[in-house]
Backbone:
C-alpha cells in the first residue's frame, strides 16, 4: 500500500517522524489524536524526511504490511515550516480499495487500492482486482487515436452517401 501526502499550499514544508498504523476499518476523525492508545503507530522504515514545495505531492510511502480491502491505513507525521520553530502533528487516513483507478489527464495517472466510488468521484476508470502494474491507462494519444478513427469513419460514411446519391438517376 503506497499512501502519499499533499499537495501543499503556501510555503514549503518539511515532513518528518512519519509513522503508520493499520486498522480493520476507518477511524472516526475525533479519534485521530495523540491520546488514542488503540492506534499503535510504528515508525516508517528509514525514518524519511520529505521536503515539499507548494503544489507538490509527496512520493508514495511503502507500508511494510499487507493491507486488505476496507482496512484503514493511518499516517501520523510532524510538519515544520521554514524559519519557524513551530511544529504540527497531522494525521491522514486512507481506506484500502480493491483495484486500480486510471485518472483522466495527460499523461494519465494510475492509483492503486482505490474503491470504485472514490475512483468515479475523480472521473476515473476503475479496474477491480488489479493494480497499476497490470493496467494500461489510456493516454491522451490513445484517446486522440480513437477520436480520430471515429472522425475518419464518419467522414468516409458521408462521402460514400454523397457518391451514392449522385449515382441515383430519376
Residues:
Amino acid at each position: 500500500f503506497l499512501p502519499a501526502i499533499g499537495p501543499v499550499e503556501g510555503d514549503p514544508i518539511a515532513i518528518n517522524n512519519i509513522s503508520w498504523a493499520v486498522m480493520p476499518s476507518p477511524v472516526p476523525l475525533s479519534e485521530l489524536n495523540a491520546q488514542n492508545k488503540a492506534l499503535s503507530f510504528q515508525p516508517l522504515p528509514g525514518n524519511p524526511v520529505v521536503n515539499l514545495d507548494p503544489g507538490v505531492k509527496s512520493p508514495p510511502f511503502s507500508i511494510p504490511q499487507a493491507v486488505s480491502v476496507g482496512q484503514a491505513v493511518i499516517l501520523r507525521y510532524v510538519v515544520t515550516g521554514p524559519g519557524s520553530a513551530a511544529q504540527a502533528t497531522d494525521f491522514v487516513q486512507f481506506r484500502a480499495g480493491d483495484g486500480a483507478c486510471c485518472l483522466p489527464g495527460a499523461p494519465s495517472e494510475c492509483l492503486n487500492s482505490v474503491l470504485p466510488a472514490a475512483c468515479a468521484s475523480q472521473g476515473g476508470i476503475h479496474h477491480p482486482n488489479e493494480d497499476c502494474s497490470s493496467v494500461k491507462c489510456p493516454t491522451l494519444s490513445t484517446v486522440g487515436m480513437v477520436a480520430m478513427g471515429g472522425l475518419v469513419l464518419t467522414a468516409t460514411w458521408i462521402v460514400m452517401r454523397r457518391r451514392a446519391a449522385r449515382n441515383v438517376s430519376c
About this structure: Residues 5 and 58 are 5 Å apart (CA to CA). The helical segments are 116-121, 140-166. The longest strand covers residues 13-23. DSSP finds two helices and eight strands in the chain.
